[in-house]
Amino acid sequence: MLLGGRLRKLDRTKPGMKSFQLVTGLLVAASALTAQQYTISTYAGIPFDRGWFSDGSPANTIPLDFPLSVASDGKGSLYINDFQGWIIRKVDPTGIMTTIAGNGTPGYAGDAAAATAAQVLDVHSLAADSKGNVYLADTATSRVRLVDPTGNINTVVGNGTRGYSGDGGAATSAELYFPVGIALDSAGNLYIADYGNYTVRKVAASGSTITTIAGTGNYGSSVDGGPANKANLAFPYAVAVDAAGNVYISDIGNQNIRKITTDSNIHTVATGVSAQSIAVDAAGNLYYPNYLDSTVREIHPDGGQVILAGTGTAGYSGDGGPATFAQLATPYGIALDPSGKIYVADTGNQIVRLLSPISQTVTGLTNAASGASAAAAGAYVSPGEIITIYGVGLGPAQLTQNQPVSGNYGFQAGGTSVKLGPPCCQYSAAVLYSSATQVAAMVPYEVGLGTAVQATVTYNGQSTPPAALTVAAAAPGIFTSNGSGSGQAAAVNQNGTLNSLSAPALLGSVITLYATGEGLTYPNGVDGQVNTPANLPVPALPVSVSLGGQDSVVTYAGGQAGSVAGLMQLNVQIPTSLIQTLNFAAGPVAVPVILQVGGFYSQTGVTIAVSSK
């Protein structure tokens, strides 16, 4: 353990600017996986209530029976596949729900007549256009049916025989084998995930011709880059088409999402995904409900994923609040509308949920190193701590990184400013970077310990509602190499290499760690100030580090020249006695690290790589 007053006389060995660049790089990189935030509400159905009792009333007053899929017509109407009611519902722009197809008795009958008098059997997905056409994938009958704007229903694809035939001919004469997912493009072409044939079929807008655009009819997987109709698929379940004409396939047998580009070649855009419904927006972002963990997720064009709704625990809660704090239960279907709203078939709750975009708000504040919530019950921030603020409308669309001027980081970046403090007297915070969904800022040293404060973000003159925080003497967090707050620490070995299992630190050597949240310093910290070699700040509170459960010698804890005040460097000697408690026979070991500042501890789950030789 080291006391703040003694640090000025101790070793300040530093591995150079590479270390600070490592940490600031992690701060900026963390903003890459952000997304639009949403509030959540129940749009249709009554939670846990199943049945078909009425039409012509507000959608959220009428029960549904296993809502499996949804489709938007782009003009404000939503269509709901009421799977175990054997009916298709429509919610008009005023919120009134009616039945447009199915008489409530399962079967296949009623073509060329009113759709509400017809029977449907096993509808798995819907597709709708702006002209009032609604397509139904009636899976068990191996047909696709159409409810036209007059309200009549007809079979438009499939002859009812399960098989694989008909390419190049009339769509109504073709054989399908369990068509599951369907989608329309802007020209009116229809795409079908022909699940049992391991293919994706396309029906021209004229309705006269069907072809195979992906898959060979054989179960399997294929490498990327070649023609899609020469690639094997394994149970294609859902399809979507973007504005440019690229077709996306959820291949649940291979647990991936493939993309057919406009040159007809196929590529993998996401792996480890088992999506029963997918949607795509104009920017190429993919959306899917993950029924396995009851969340709704977005996949960016670069492959990164973020959670838009759901806590990961099935249930029903959260209406009226942030969607990421809400619970859903085995959601299966998803649809987008042009305004940015997302409709989710929250199947296990017997409802359809609506995710509405939030224009400007703070949805979370965390320690920038640990990722631990600073706004949760029992959580704290400390003076000088680097925090990450998440939300919507916080800054410019493109990330803007602040640069120090005359030795100080300013209080604004990209038009974004942050204030923290009690309502009576808020202080400006130094801003390290800003973007639309994420801001990194520093808790002002002036805020009083033990006080309840508020954080407000202002962008282009518009301010978010205040977010409540509590200030403590310290709230330490250790930076990690992947920016998640868990796993391998962002650490530099004594020889200047980055610590990892492939480049471990030796027993007895000194390793450098980086943290924030050490609290007040000596000399007093200055908001946004860049440290100079002549006057490095050191923590006012005692600092200790545990490696592998053993107290370790901290040879230096304090600021680093060239870094911003509030980023703490820790030089820690690795105990040679670890050889007595850990097994190094098989090679380097991931050794747990815990930082203590005063009576406050860093997050668990952080490790460094250590070797005995």
Could you explain the architecture of this structure?
By secondary structure, this protein is mainly beta. It has one helix and 48 strands. The strands form ten sheets. Strands 37, 38, 39, 40, 43, 44, 45, 46, 47 and 48 form a ten-stranded mixed β-sheet that branches. A five-stranded antiparallel β-sheet has the order 2-6-5-4-3, with no helix packed on it. Strands 7-11-10-9-8 form a five-stranded antiparallel β-sheet, with no helix packed on it. A hairpin with a 4-residue loop joins strand 5 (87-91) and strand 6. The longest helix is centred in the N-terminal third of the chain and has 13 residues, at 17-29. The radius of gyration is 29 Å and the shape is elongated. The model is unreliable at 1-18 (pLDDT under 50).
Question: What layout of secondary structure does this protein have?
Answer:
Layout: H1 17-29, E1 38-44, E2 57-58, E3 67-72, E4 78-82, E5 87-91, E6 96-101, E7 113-114, E8 123-128, E9 134-138, E10 143-147, E11 152-157, E12 179-184, E13 190-194, E14 199-203, E15 210-214, E16 236-241, E17 247-251, E18 256-260, E19 266-271, E20 279-280, E21 286-290, E22 295-299, E23 305-309, E24 333-336, E25 342-346, E26 351-357, E27 361-367, E28 386-392, E29 400-401, E30 416-421, E31 427-429, E32 431-434, E33 438-442, E34 452-459, E35 462-463, E36 467-470, E37 477-478, E38 487-488, E39 505-506, E40 510-516, E41 521-522, E42 538-539, E43 543-547, E44 550-558, E45 567-573, E46 589-597, E47 600-601, E48 606-611
Parallel strand pairs: 38-48, 39-48
Antiparallel strand pairs: 1-26, 2-6, 3-4, 4-5, 5-6, 7-11, 8-9, 9-10, 10-11, 12-13, 13-14, 14-15, 16-17, 17-18, 18-19, 20-21, 21-22, 22-23, 24-25, 25-26, 27-28, 28-33, 29-32, 30-31, 30-34, 32-33, 34-35, 34-36, 37-40, 40-45, 41-42, 43-44, 43-46, 44-45, 46-47, 46-48
